[in-house]
Write a structure and sequence with these properties.
Number of strands: 16
Shape: globular
Order of helices and strands: HEHEEEEEEEEEEEEEEHE
Distance between the termini: 40 Å
CATH class: Mainly Beta
CATH superfamily: Lipoprotein localisation LolA/LolB/LppX
Strand order of the largest sheet: 8-9-12-13-14-1-2-3-5-6-7-15
CATH topology: outer membrane lipoprotein receptor (LolB), chain A
CATH architecture: Clam
Structural class: alpha+beta
Number of domains: 1
Radius of gyration: 21 Å
Largest sheet: 12 strands, mixed
Helix content: 10-25%
């Protein structure tokens, strides 16, 4: 019954929108990360500082510019972001405000411009199609009525994390792959089959996502702004598939780890997190 009601509502709303319908959504992200440092050589103050830095590292703000078939998703630059304290370095693979994710929902493909340690890549591939299950549960996000949808996929809650001190390295082993339940909240009031990151495929714009340890929540939404929004597919960078890029990223992270071990850290701490 819920599927029929949503489809009817979607058909009615779609007839009201012109072909140039567009909008801007601001999302905030957060990631749970429990860092076990009981066996680390860090003192209590350093451990506390590190926990706070990791928390801020994963509290990001993104913007999705969209129309009926395309979108561009990118991180908002935060000029006031806290700088790491002396002796502590955090490296998050694949992150950065210069990265751009373009999605073409009609053609079911994406193009992602991504900087990997100073080298520019253009990752091109097909969009992953999740098997969404539409639920009866609803809730309000802002002024919009949102419906719940769930999907399952295999993944890891944390890719990798390494703590280095001087020439010694304490590496947290990667967890095995497990089935992760993705919970999405979408609104048919905005009949765009799009959402943050690589998420798409629901009969309405996704305003909230919970994917394992990560949550993404919309905080601002502007429909049909007076100024036409910019949606351009990135074209610069070495073209690779998603699978190829993952292999390159793993190789680069290993090279960085080996390089740091060779020259020593001089008493510094370094945290490296796979993207």
């Amino acid at each position: 019954m819920i599927r029929i009601m949503i489809l009817i509502l979607l058909f009615m709303i779609e007839s009201l929108f012109a072909q140039d319908f567009q909008g801007i959504v601001t999302y905030k992200t957060n990631r749970k990360m429990d860092l076990n440092m009981e066996d680390s050589k860090m003192n209590a103050d350093m451990q506390k500082q590190l926990q706070e830095m990791l928390k801020k590292q994963f509290q990001k703000e993104f913007r999705l510019n969209f129309n009926t078939t395309e979108s561009v998703y990118r991180e908002e630059e935060n000029l006031g972001a806290p700088q790491p304290a002396s002796g502590v370095q955090i490296v998050v693979a694949g992150s950065g405000a210069s990265n751009i994710l373009y999605k073409n929902i009609k053609e079911k493909r994406f193009a992602r411009k991504q900087d990997m340690m100073g080298k520019l890549f253009l990752v091109k591939d097909n969009l992953e199609k999740l098997d969404w299950k539409l639920e009866d549960e609803t809730k309000k996000i802002g002024k919009y009525t949102c419906y719940k949808a769930t999907a399952k996929r295999m993944g890891q809650r944390m890719r990798s994390m390494t703590i280095s001190t001087d020439n010694e390295e304490e590496e947290m082993t990667e967890p095995e792959e497990e089935e992760i339940t993705i919970t999405a909240w979408y609104t048919p009031e905005i009949p765009i089959s799009n959402g943050p990151g690589n998420y798409w495929g629901l009969p309405g714009l996704i305003l909230e996502i919970n994917d394992g340890d990560q949550s993404i929540l919309s905080t601002k939404l502007v429909l049909n702004p007076k100024k036409e929004i910019d949606i351009k597919e990135p074209t610069k960078g070495k073209v690779v598939t998603e699978e190829k890029f993952e292999k390159i990223m793993e190789k680069k992270m290993k090279e960085m780890r080996d390089r740091m071990n060779t020259r020593g850290n001089g008493g510094n701490f370094e945290i490296r997190i796979g993207g």
